[in-house]
Amino acid sequence: HTVVWQNQLPSWVSSLPLNQVQQAMESHITTEASHYKGQVYAWDVVNEPFNGDGSFVSDVFYRAMGSGYIADALRTAHAADPGTQLSHNDYN
């Protein structure tokens, strides 16, 4: 469904020191997107990063990297699979 999401996240990711979260996120995105390179029409790179009021969800990614984590995730996915469409998804 998505590559980066605070729900259904392995507990070890939430337990990482904040200075290791970016590398873990980028590694996960690169591994997934490279594995399926050219086979996926579009990646939902970041899922539900916002609260209903428009503020950021204070998840491990936001706490570690601030609001720039979405752009970083999109750049990482593009580098791994440049021919695929990229998006973020939210429910509101």
TrEMBL record:
<dbReference type="GO" id="GO:0045493">
    <property type="term" value="P:xylan catabolic process"/>
</dbReference>
<protein>
    <recommendedName>
        <fullName>endo-1,4-beta-xylanase</fullName>
        <ecNumber>3.2.1.8</ecNumber>
    </recommendedName>
</protein>
<keyword id="KW-0378">Hydrolase</keyword>
<dbReference type="Pfam" id="PF00331">
    <property type="entry name" value="Glyco_hydro_10"/>
</dbReference>
<keyword id="KW-0119">Carbohydrate metabolism</keyword>
<dbReference type="InterPro" id="IPR001000">
    <property type="entry name" value="GH10_dom"/>
</dbReference>
<feature type="domain" description="GH10">
    <location>
        <begin position="1"/>
        <end position="92"/>
    </location>
</feature>
<keyword id="KW-0326">Glycosidase</keyword>
<keyword id="KW-0858">Xylan degradation</keyword>
<dbReference type="GO" id="GO:0031176">
    <property type="term" value="F:endo-1,4-beta-xylanase activity"/>
</dbReference>
<dbReference type="InterPro" id="IPR044846">
    <property type="entry name" value="GH10"/>
</dbReference>
<keyword id="KW-0624">Polysaccharide degradation</keyword>
<comment type="similarity">
    <text>Belongs to the glycosyl hydrolase 10 (cellulase F) family.</text>
</comment>
<keyword id="KW-0732">Signal</keyword>
<dbReference type="InterPro" id="IPR017853">
    <property type="entry name" value="GH"/>
</dbReference>
